[in-house]
Amino acid sequence: MLYNNKNLETAEDLLGLVDVASLNATLHRDMKSAVKRVCDVAGCTPRSLRLEVRSLRETLRKVRPAAHGITPKTWANLLSRFRAALRLADVIDPVWQGFAMNHPAWAPLVQAIAGDKRLSCGLAAFSNWCAAQALAPEEVDDKVVQQFLRWLENRTLCPKPRDVVRRVPHLWNEVSEKIKIWPKNRLTTLSFKAPFKRHQWGELSDSFREDANAYLAMRADLDLFDERPNAPKAGLAASTLRQQSEHLRLSASILIESGVAVIDITSLADLVRPESLKIILRHYHERANRKPNAFVICLAKTLIQVAQYHVGATQDEVDQLKRFASKLPAVPFDLTAKNKAVAAQFESDQLRAKLLFLPEQLMAEVAQSLAGGRLRFVDAQVAVAIDIDLVIPLRPQNLSSLAWQRHFSEPDGPNGRLLLHIPAQETKSKLQDLVAEIPEDVAKRLRWYRRHILPRLNADVNGPLFVTKKGNAKTQETLSHQITQVIRRRLGVHLTPHQPRHLGAIWYLEEHPEDFETPKAFLGHAWSKTTRVYAGSPSRRASRAYSQFVFQKREALKLMRKRRRRPERKNETE
Prior knowledge:
Blueprint: H1 11-20, H2 25-41, H3 53-61, H4 72-88, H5 107-112, H6 117-132, H7 142-155, H8 161-178, H9 206-220, H10 238-257, H11 274-287, H12 294-311, H13 315-326, H14 337-345, H15 349-371, H16 377-391, H17 396-400, H18 404-407, E1 408-409, E2 418-422, E3 434-438, H19 440-452, H20 476-491, H21 499-511, H22 517-523, H23 528-535, H24 539-563
Antiparallel strand pairs: 1-2, 2-3
């Protein structure tokens, strides 16, 4: 039975509705418990949780059940009962599961793609909704897809409605070409990307693009015999070149938005004039609310390098640009707020233990599933990645590109020591090779993964460690996303593959506050000051070291007092 939800505004009203609903005792109890528990986990009271679909979706999206000791299965049950209460109040609709299989027009189509999990799962929600709306397959068009999107957004708690709808045109058009009985009406692909806020390269003048390309090419391929007095002494990495390219495009866009005509920006020299630099830096400084901002400082450095190495500015002109840039507030020499929050979470010994034992637990579950015929290769890869990252905190680009034959060696045979070797040219600093010995238990899991998982993916056991289902090398973005998602699901925290580098430095220095050289070495930093940023504020470590010093001194003095003998009194009769 559906109830009128006009007077229902909060979860407290929803609890009142459940109280008077015609439900059996068990369902009544479970539904109320679910509503209260969801509010508790979401960090709000029933009175403050509003029954508005978009607001509810955003609230549930932020919930991390593992942080509250709730397993995925228990959370799924709680959400199921919570959704049932919302359907009772007519806040959301049923998902119409199975409607397409019972519809005379849709059933043959659903059966035709039942053997392909990607197609059947990708079109299930859409086909069920169409069947429930009594829409025939021949009536499906772009307008119907937009109606489906509005329904998902306004009448369901689907966590990512746009992702569900984005797949529909692609899969529909693919199936219409493969299956004869499928309607041939093609759908327009959808994109929810926001329009570009800044001018793109194609919108800038040809001469400006040519000059920018010439500068970037010069910085990429350093001429060792360039005799110009202002010639750069070192080339730039590919990632830095991409960053500087963006800086140049954005700088030109800001000038255009300030009123400069596109045709008047003909070269990079137009960006580094004093007034132009002021306009660009002032814009991003204001955008950062006049607070320290690393992006605007990096952008200023790029433009100064353009003036110094490419435009041919005099030393006085370069010094003037540097004076302008120096007026920007400096970024604090410390961890970012996000990294500080992560470090604070791992103050908990319980959470720290969960992270340290997560690879072992994941790999045990993978082995158990494998015995049952299920290949959980993503969990296996995440286990290996976290395992390595905890004992040897690699940068994500180095972690994702690990290959057995290229980066690992077994000097004592397949059951002996396992060494990791990353050549200097693959490191960020490019100064020296990174060589480390893999701990025995980590090596054991890594070898098991190589022996039992990679062959089942048709992957080369001597090639990349992290591969897709088809055996191709996995991208850094994909692996990083999977690591983050698994940690979030199992631990209830957001931890990127880069942040164990911060945790490693912090944890080591907690026990060895005087030894900065060791974290500097295992993090592969060229400068000690970078390690100090990674390790965060030293005040806590200093206070701990000092307190230990005080108590050690106190104990030493206590022992001295015990050892000191009291002088004997002379006999008064003598």
